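Notebook p. 47: complex prediction with flavin mononucleotide.
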Amino acid sequence: MFLADRLNAELVELVEAQKRRGLTGFLKSGYQAVARRASELEGKPWEKIEGFDKLYLMTPIWGGNGTPAMNRFVRKADFSGKEVTVVTFQSDIKLKGSEKVHSTYKEIIESRGGRFMKGIALHSTLPGKFAGKEYIEAQVEDSLLK
Ligand SMILES: Cc1cc2nc3c(=O)[nH]c(=O)nc-3n(C[C@H](O)[C@H](O)[C@H](O)COP(=O)(O)O)c2cc1C
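Predicted complex, structure tokens below:
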């Protein structure tokens, strides 16, 4: 929302059809991410990018991979003529595995007609915790708005 506001951009949220709850939800999420599964999303968010030429795909890293929600989105979206930047968030301060996630999405984006601009790895916090608005916004500012 911060980035969308600052860029005067449209925010498209990926909302999963099925909620994730508790420990079972956490374990399932990890398993699905490792297996690079895609989840059902509410609506057709990929249709909302028609007519835009710059996209920022933002996702947490789960189990060293992207998320099932983002996997669905990139496998459905038509990126033709679009410049795409991938931004990941994760709890590991060393940002382990982020390059692999960026390159996996790069491959899919390019195979669907897009131009991958860059992958940006940002630090968030542990699952269930909130890193803090200012902490996240400062990193977005430094990496994307300067
Ligand atoms: C199922 C699951 C798996 C995760 N796996 C990783 C991981 O492999 N590496 C990492 O740095 N952080 C991992 N995390 C931490 C998340 O990346 C972090 O909590 C997330 O960026 C917070 O953003 P959110 O509040 O938007 O979910 C994992 C979190 C969850 C829930």
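Notes: Residues 2-144 form a domain with the Rossmann fold fold (CATH 3.40.50.360). The longest helix spans residues 98-111.
Next step: compare against the earlier run before touching the bench.
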